[in-house]
């Protein structure tokens, strides 16, 4: 953020950070609980540089952020949406400290799909990551009923025709292993550079096979933190965010 950031009213800054309502902050200011650069500020309309000034409330430093960037390990059974009348959404899983920033999921994972989901309130970054022109790669690991073989690898590399006639962009399919019993089960990794509805499942249907488990493990250069429990989320590190704002959103053409 530029050192020339626009100054804002301190009650606006603190309410954005969830310190309280503007009336709450006005009371705190009158009580002498708010300091800016070590000096007590009793006027809740006082203007501050939220990034440059040192703001404290009751002795606790306030680190201002306009945007929030979260990695979630999405579990099955919840929707990648901001609200739904019947089902839980990924926002219902967030801590209040995160939810108050009103983030939204960047793209979507099917209800039964697990793994990496990015949530943010930064619309510009979300647009960059989702723009069809950018071809941001997304990698999935899946369990597939059937014997995924070299012919499928070649077909995916060319692009497969879905049931509606759409031919996908070339995709990188790798066979991780297989189990053979009453039926053959294959374990695969797939990297695609577009995001059509139910695309991974539809691609395997196109070659006569069925996905029974699907997990997204990376988006651009950002990889899922495998230590993050299902349903949990955390803020991206500075290095992870740099992957998205740098090479992670460069065109793959």
> Which term fits the overall shape?
elongated
Percent range of helical residues: 10-25%
How much of the sequence lies in strands comes to 25-35%
Unreliable runs: 247-253
Q: What average pLDDT do the residues reach?
A: 91
Which oligomerization state do the chains in this entry correspond to? single chain
SSE arrangement, N to C: EHHEEEEEEHEEHEHEEHEEEH
List how many beta strands DSSP finds. 15
Number of helices: 7
Structural class assignment: alpha+beta
The largest pleated sheet is described as: 9 strands, mixed
Radius of gyration: 23 Å
Distance between the termini: 30 Å
Brief description of this entry?
Helices cover 21% and strands 28% of the residues. By secondary structure, it is an alpha+beta fold.
Please, could you describe this protein's structure?
This protein has 253 residues and is α+β, with helices and mostly antiparallel strands. It contains seven helices and 15 strands. A hairpin with a 2-residue loop joins strand 5 (55-57) and strand 6 (60-61). The longest helix is centred in the first third of the chain and has 9 residues, at 22-30. Mean pLDDT is 91; it is low at 247-253.
Task: List descriptors.
253 residues; alpha+beta; 9-stranded mixed β-sheet; 4-stranded antiparallel β-sheet; 7 helices; disordered C terminus
